[in-house]
Structure formats: structure tokens, C-alpha cells
Design brief:
By secondary structure, the chain is mainly α. It has 11 helices and no strands. It has 2 domains: 51 residues; 252 residues, MetI-like (MetI-like fold), CATH 1.10.3720.10.
């Protein structure tokens, strides 16, 4: 290579480095737009509402007087609905993802199912609310209850859990499966002892992402008839007379944090807007706590797995 060709090569490399630097700068700029927007909104919400947060705000029922209003029924309802959502969506979603990756035959029917699952992840949430209204409320007669809300949100996040499970399983090296089969293990033993444990960190991430989406949803909950003003709590879970009474809470009326915030922001008094900001601040903290727990569990799981 002569001197002229060497100089041209250096200029080409320098040009590519400039483009790399420019693309990196553009990526940082795009990231900062999202981060700074969220930070500004979160800081504004904290400034407006953090002074309203106290023990009375957390332990009081809603009231027509802003100074006496609290979020007790809202945060209890949110926790119970999330409990039903997790119990319904996680086992079904993980099992479906495992089946599609490890058991399902690769044919046109499986391809159609996979395409539809991916498409369902992008369906607007109001569609799930209308589906739940016709299916759970009118057809099955479950009423406007915690069970209906939990199943509705479970349908909403089910595609997310399935897709996340499949992607986590795909990340497992094929040599793990081959080694297990070579030792005489069955498909179920391979899945139980190797595939699911090794992919559990990725599966958990998908579950938390889905739950974080569900806890802030409003449209499907309004559609199935969540109450905007409720001054009582549902029965305590598993505290009634067994066997049927232990599940009375599933059929109780409810409200959730987003509905309570929607109710307050629709009122003209400025004090209710402060209450909504305080509730929104707590809702964001709950979501961040869920994501923090997921990160910690994922770290622990990755440390405990021996490849």
C-alpha cells in the first residue's frame, strides 16, 4: 500500500469516526429529551403534591372537601387489582411463552399465533376494556368487581409477558439444551431445570414492565365501571368464612389510583389538583419501587445461576 492509499484510508476512518461521534451525540440528545421531560414533570408533581402527603392522606377515604380527602380506598384497590392481575397473567403468560418456544411445532398455525400475539401487544387499552365489559361483566356475570378489573388488566399485559418470556428463552444458548438432552433429560426436565431458571431474570423484567403498565391504566378500568367515589374498603383477602367467604373481596366494588386522580383533576377547586399531584407522585413512586425490585431480583438471580 503506497502513501496515497494509506492517507485515503486514514481519511475514511476519520470520516467514519466523525459519523460515530455524531450519532452518539444524537443518541444522548434523544435520551436527554426523554429523561429531562420525565424529570421536569416528576419534579413539578412533587413540588405541587409532596406537602399534601401525610398519614391522614394515606389513611382517609375520598371526601367532597379537598382538605379531608385521602387515597385509602384507591391504593388498597390498586394493590388488590394488581394481585389478581399477577396471579392471572404471570402463570399463563410464562407457560404460553415456554410452550411456543420449546414445545410448539414450527408450522403456519404457530406463525399465525406468534404474529397475533405481537400485534395484541400494541392494541389500545380501551379495546380490552370493551372486551372485558362484554365478556366478564355481561356474559360471565362477574360484575364491576376487583376480579373483573384484574382479569381485564391481565389480558392487557398477557402479550407483553408472553413476548418477554420468549425473548428471554431465546437468549439461552442452544448448547444448554443439547447438553441436557445428551444426559438423557426429557423436554420437561430441560425446561424445568435449565431453561426457566436461566431465563428467569429476563422473564421477571417483562413481568414488571407489564405490571408497571397495568398499574397506571385508566381507560379499561373506567369502561368496566370502576367507581370514582368510594368510602369503604373491600373485605380483607382470605379473611372471611371458608371456603367461599375467603374470596368475597374479589367481587367487591373498587376504585384505583388513576381513577381517583382523574376524579380530582376534573374538579374546579385548586386544592383537588394538589391532591391529584400528591396521588400521582405516590403512583410514580410505586412504579419505580416495582422496577427497583425487579432490578434487584434480576441481579440476585443472575448471581445465583451457574452456567
Amino acid at each position: 500500500m503506497n502513501q496515497q492509499e494509506l492517507q485515503a484510508l486514514r481519511e475514511l476512518i476519520a470520516s467514519h469516526k466523525r459519523w460515530d461521534w455524531l450519532f452518539g451525540l444524537l443518541g444522548v440528545f434523544a435520551l436527554m429529551i426523554g429523561v429531562l421531560t420525565f424529570t421536569a414533570l416528576f419534579a413539578n408533581m412533587a413540588i405541587d403534591g409532596i406537602g399534601r402527603i401525610d398519614a391522614d392522606f394515606l389513611t382517609s377515604f375520598p371526601s367532597r372537601r379537598a382538605a379531608n380527602a385521602g387515597i385509602l380506598s384507591a391504593w388498597v384497590g390498586s394493590l388488590l387489582v394488581m394481585l389478581v392481575t399477577a396471579f392471572a397473567a404471570v402463570p399463563i403468560g410464562v407457560a404460553a411463552g415456554v410452550y411456543l418456544e420449546e414445545y410448539a411445532p414450527k408450522n403456519w398455525l404457530t406463525d399465525i399465533i406468534e404474529i397475533n400475539i405481537s400485534n395484541l401487544a400494541g392494541v389500545p387499552s380501551i379495546i380490552y376494556g370493551l372486551l372485558a365489559l362484554g365478556l366478564f361483566v355481561y356474559t360471565f356475570g362477574l360484575g364491576q368487581s376487583i376480579l373483573t378489573a384484574g382479569l381485564t388488566l391481565a389480558l392487557l399485559i398477557l402479550p407483553v409477558v408472553i413476548v418477554a418470556t420468549r425473548e428471554a428463552i431465546r437468549a439461552i444458548p442452544q448448547i444448554i439444551r443439547e447438553g441436557s438432552y445428551a444426559c438423557g433429560a426429557t423436554t420437561w426436565q430441560t425446561v424445568r431445570d435449565h431453561i426457566v431458571p436461566y431465563s428467569s431474570a429476563g422473564i421477571l423484567t417483562g413481568i414488571i414492565i407489564g405490571m408497571a403498565r397495568a398499574i397506571g391504566e385508566t381507560a379499561p378500568i373506567i369502561t368496566i365501571g370502576a367507581l370514582t367515589f368510594i368510602a369503604f374498603l373491600p373485605p380483607a383477602p382470605f379473611a372471611g368464612e371458608p371456603p367461599a367467604g375467603m374470596f368475597d373481596w374479589l367481587f367487591a366494588p373498587f376504585t384505583v389510583m388513576p381513577i381517583q386522580m382523574f376524579n380530582w383533576t376534573s374538579r374546579p377547586e385548586a386544592a383537588f389538583a394538589v391532591n391529584a399531584a400528591a396521588a400521582g407522585f405516590l403512583l410514580v413512586l410505586m412504579t419505580l419501587a416495582m422496577n427497583g425490585l425487579a432490578i434487584w431480583l434480576r441481579y440476585r438471580l443472575r448471581k445465583s445461576i451457574k452456567w
